[in-house]
Design a protein that fits this description.
alpha+beta; 8-stranded mixed beta sheet; 21 strands; 6-stranded mixed beta sheet
Amino acid sequence: MRLTNVAHLRLPFGRLLGYDVTVGRLGRPLPVSFDQRRHVGAGDRAGSWMALSFTLSAPVPSDALAAAWLAVVARHGTLRSIFSPGEDGEPRLHEVEIFPGDWVEHPIAPGQAVNDALRDVLDHACPPYSRPSHRLCVLETAAGPTVVVAADHSHVDMWSMLVIARDLLTALAAVQDGRAPSLPPAPAFAEHTRALRDRPAAPAEVHHRWAEVLAASGDVMPRFPLSLGAATLQHERVEVRDVLDVDDSAAFSAQARDDGVSTLALVVAAMTDVTRKLAGTPLRAVFPVHSRYDATWNDSVGWFITNSVLESTDPDPRASAEAVKEAVRMGSWPLEDVLRPWGGMPEAPGMFAISWLDLRRLPVRVDATGLEAQYVGATIRTDGVMLWFILDEAGLHLRCRYPDTPEARQHVGTWLDTLIAHLQSRARESVGGRLPLGDRVYRVQRAGRADVPALVALLSDDEIGRTREGAEMARYEEAYDAIARDSAHYLAVVRAEDDRIIGTMQLTIIPGLSRGGTARLQIEGVRVAATERSHGVGTAMLEWAHDHGRHRGATLVQVTTDRARERAQAFYARLGYDSSHVGFKRAL
């Protein structure tokens, strides 16, 4: 899923509409979490919201979308609550009733970018003390609407935005089918706040470790280790980068598994190494962790994030894994008690925070690709560095926000460039692309266009291939182009140590509805050079292909071979393939 901010958001041009709900009188008081108090206590301000945008494939009646949105609000208690300033300056939170309202059109001025118009709407609608501090917006076009759901951060986190999108789509489908858009109740975030207050206080060793990390940072939360220039709020600079594509991400994850650590731990190891080389210090950062400590809260909406601190001194992957585990443990206790000696969270200019979200592991899923979904941040002024990593089926992505000063451009930019180069190099040199066989090591890569003649030679190098291959090379190159355009296909080349191409296979991920929505890995065109046969290369290639399919969600692999290829049939049988089906082909 693309990580962006409102200035970089990809939006179509159309009518910009917003839905104004009606808010009833204040109801019963609700508990305020530590992080909510810190966030809302800073007062009303622009840019405190976060949003999710997605595109629907066909026009939707506005009353249907409004009905679906009201069903989402009815399900989630935090969307039916508002903050107000107390007489003592502390924010108060109250339950409210939300009633139907009206759609209003927000004008887009001549020459004004759609992004700027949307930002103005959300900055006005979603400050902490708004009634309510969330907003449903739609950009209407002839092709279909782009929906933007935004809320003040005190009520949502990134996980919550996925829940909201999923619930809105579910309710909308019910409305369009003529059914009531009712959604089952979900535990409210206020219940989580109460439950968290009832958890035991942190043990002494946790207090001690927090004190050690903060002391190493000057008794404030960790700061970026290089100069950012003036220690005052500055216009932000936002960089959005695709760090690892789907292939490099798979290879990187394979390296993490081989090292016995998580993908996150291997990224932390890389950040530790880069920080030591550029700044001569350990990696220290604010490290947000989820407080959804059990499945009770998986379908709830709220700010289920608390902060921890991460200190990683050793770039060895296992040492970095231990640092991550320690940070998670340190964030598993009520922060109000932990941070009391500092009078709350001791923030300072230059604060450095690293956020990580692996969408593949979340119990809440949406079709981010089909919906063109984007996580959207607001535009703000900042004096610190915030780094968000998102890992999904398309690879590893990041968004970084930092003060737009000459020093920050140089130092944060260099740190990011060095980190990304490190991660990409680690992926391409990883075990994920290696086929070790005895004292030899082959490598698997996506084929390039220049490899096509060598692949055609491999396909032709047997009694059957000699009779059916031999078209003009331009035909093969056109076929290669069609394969390369679609990431569902992986045309592999296997290279020996001297860089010779000695094998090939074409792998395709096929989604399907049958077998409960099973995705299949189709393997075609498996060839090994005559000089390399009977050495185990083919077996190693198929095992690599199976890992490729698993990483992309396939749970079934299928392969076809000509009846005349008796040795190939025996080969597949030895690898556990069952000839359970009969295949048919005809010319078109």
